[in-house]
Amino acid sequence: MKLRSIITSLLAGSACIFNASAQDGSTAYNYLNIPVSTHVYGLGGHNISIIDDDINLIEQNPALLGPEFERQIGVNYMRYIGESNFMGARFGNRITDHNAWAVGIQYYGYGEFTAADIDGSITGTFNANDIAFSATYSHDINDRLRGGITMKALSSKYEDYSAFALCADLGINYYNPDSDLSLSMVLKNLGGQISKFHESYDRLPWDIQLGFSQFLKNTSIRISITATHLTKWKLPYYTREDQNSTTSELIEKNSFTSNLFRHLTFAAEYVPSDKFYIGIGYNHKTRTDMSTYSRNFVSGFSVAAGIKSRSLGVGVAIAQPHTGATTFMANFTMSLASLLR
């Protein structure tokens, strides 16, 4: 019955997403696409299939939560573009040998802005922020298959405007420890606004994602491929005819190859033990999104490293989407269960 319930939920979510993707209009709440895990951020910003002892990973896929995260705390901080600072915390615990729960809070602060009236007269300053509260539950369907769900409450306040939304992530993961193979599927951000900013309701960035992670045979190298934005095949972008000029004519790129690679994020890691990793990721969509801006050679690339002891873990990640935006993220984890033994 539990397996049937999870499959039914995944199929129902798929139908909702495909119906939404057929409608015109952009989405709000796109901060939900920013990862909170350094491990994920350093692997291109999307990864729903890596298996690691890090509770921050469950933000990408609720099915990555399990009883192994017994009384684990995760804290994250990110210095994002401009004056944006993001931070959050999570706590997870086992229920039985086959299920677990977690709760979390994430804060997105965008800095201070200048306020003006309709005539352009400065009236002071204001702040803008988003807060996401989450609750996650996961259950082992069998010894290799696990399903999970995360419920999220989203509160936004921009100057005198505020809004509230509810959504859910549904995930499933297959992991074979004998071959170190992990496969995942996630339906992300299923839901909508309860209260709106102004006159109309904003859509959430609903998505279908597929993930693959595999250690190469007899090596310490793990590769990952994550497919995102699967609600829409065509993801055209524009680039300058002359990349050295910011005023040259824009050219649309919308070929089969271009669309294919804008759906994919690639990553490779060196993982000599479960105590250390170093990885690099490439996100072609991030790189091509910067085609009309000041991107450089490393745009689209990101790197991460992590080290842990029996009860403590630290991770860092860095990326530079374009020349004026170097982003840095740090994670900290603590296993109270291991610490108190």
Cα separation of the termini: 37 Å
Write the CATH architecture name.
Beta Barrel
What's the number of helices? Answer: 5
Please report the first level of CATH classification, the CATH class. Answer: Mainly Beta
User: N-to-C SSE series?
Assistant: HHEEEEEEEEEEEHEEHEEEH
Give the number of DSSP strands: 16
What are the segments in which pLDDT stays under 50 over at least 5 consecutive residues? 1-25
Q: What is the subunit arrangement here?
A: single chain
Give an overview of the whole structure.
Mean pLDDT is 87; it is low at 1-25. The two termini are 37 Å apart. This protein has a single domain (2-339), classed as Porin (Beta Barrel). It has helices at residues 2-21, 38-41, 256-262, 284-289, 336-339; strands spanning 72-79, 85-96, 99-116, 122-140, 145-158, 161-176, 181-195, 207-215, 221-227, 237-240, 250-253, 264-273, 276-283, 301-308, 312-322, 325-335. By secondary structure, the protein is mainly beta. The longest helix is centred in the N-terminal third of the chain and has 20 residues, at 2-21. It is built from five helices and 16 strands. Strand 8 and strand 9 (221-227) form a beta hairpin. It has a 14-stranded antiparallel barrel with strand order 1-2-3-4-5-6-7-8-9-12-13-14-15-16. A two-stranded antiparallel sheet has the order 10-11.
